[in-house]
Design brief:
By secondary structure, the protein is α+β, with helices and mostly antiparallel strands. The chain contains 9 helices and 12 strands. Bound molecules: (3R)-3-hydroxy-3-methyl-5-(phosphonooxy)pentanoic acid (PMV).
């Protein structure tokens, strides 16, 4: 059997505009970041799935493929087991798979490690098996995997991992349009608080059932902000884009997903000259982002640090999933 191994990597992501609203069909803008997940895949004769994922505490996790639907799968293996299962249903092959994953970043930062590792894994299996799937097919497969495991989500993180760059995106890939590859100066501050997305999304959904349309109106306002953001981004009009980030932050605050530490870091960034600053993603904790200029970035970093944030060095507009 084919004993060579194949490594693929995929980027993490940061939401620039449109979080939460994107779960309910409104578009967002997401950028891929150069913090990558890697998966090295090898075919084995034994019909098993063997996983080495030291980043999530799994060494030599072993699952017989015959047991795949009934076994109790540990949390750190769920996305890859589901990905393998869905891939094998669509493209059956003999034998099994050994995979090793590694990460440039902690899964705590909210950079989308599960989605990035799912796409990297599928890309590597595709190369190993020789199925030659195109990126749209890989995206759809990975989005189905994420939905099966998480039960909720817009797939924006899968899209960023698949296509890289900065994307105008709507749920399920209904829109997935690359925005121009302009460089821009983004500072990322981690709050030190790890947040699970699904319970927050669930809580807001429950609230929206009895709020007389208030939350739907917030989502519509976010959609307007994102639409203006596409124009501002396309023209590299960073002052305008910064204003839109502030507007999205105000809407997210109304939605109830900001927090004291996020607000402190955002205010500090603005006072240090940021063109715009907001939480990125679910909120409550995770990361905030501030748009600066090459001149203002050092002061913005200092201000966020003084406010209790931890600066994460990331580069935006990272390349798509790729074989290494
Ligand atoms: O916390 P993150 O970075 O995974 O972002 C979640 C963004 C949401 O819009 C709240 C959920 C989603 O799947 O789009």
């Amino acid at each position: 059997m084919n004993a060579h191994s194949v490594t693929a990597s995929a980027p993490g992501k940061l939401m620039l505009l449109g979080e939460h609203a994107v779960v309910y069909g409104r578009p967002c803008i997401v950028t891929a970041v150069d913090q990558r997940m890697r998966a090295t895949v090898e075919r084995i004769d034994n019909p098993s799935f063997i996983l080495h994922a030291p980043d999530v505490g799994l060494e030599e996790y072993h699952l017989a493929l015959a047991d795949i639907t009934n076994a109790e799968i540990p949390k750190g293996a769920r996305f890859l087991v589901e990905a393998l299962q869905q891939f094998r249903v669509a493209h059956p092959f003999d034998g099994g798979i050994r995979v090793r994953t590694s990460s440039d970043f902690s899964s705590h930062f909210g950079f989308g490690s599960s989605s990035a590792s799912t796409i990297a894994f599928l890309r590597a299996i595709d190369a190993c098996i020789g199925t030659h799937l195109d990126l749209r097919t890989l995206f759809e497969l990975a989005f189905a995997v994420v939905l099966a495991v998480q039960k909720t989500g817009s797939g924006f993180d899968v899209a960023a991992a698949t296509w890289g760059g900065t994307l105008h995106y709507a749920r399920g890939g209904e829109i997935a349009t690359a925005l121009p590859n302009h460089s821009f100066s983004l500072v990322v501050g981690y709050t030190g608080v790890k947040v699970e997305t699904a319970p927050v999304v669930h809580r807001i959904r429950e609230e929206s059932l009895r709020d007389g349309g208030r939350i739907e109106r917030l989502y519509d306002a976010m959609a307007t902000v994102t639409a203006k953001g596409v124009t501002a981004f396309s023209h590299a009009d960073w002052p305008a884009f910064g204003v839109l980030m502030d507007e999205q932050q105000a809407l997210l605050r109304d939605l109830g997903v900001s927090s004291d530490v996020l607000e402190r870091c955002i205010l500090a960034a603005k006072q240090a000259g940021a063109l715009g600053a907001k939480l990125s993603g679910t909120g409550i904790g995770d990361c905030m982002i501030a748009l600066g200029t090459p001149e203002t970035v050092p002061a913005i970093m200092d201000a966020i640090t003084a406010a209790g944030g931890i600066i994460l060095p990331v580069r935006v507009q990272a390349p798509a999933v790729r074989l290494e």
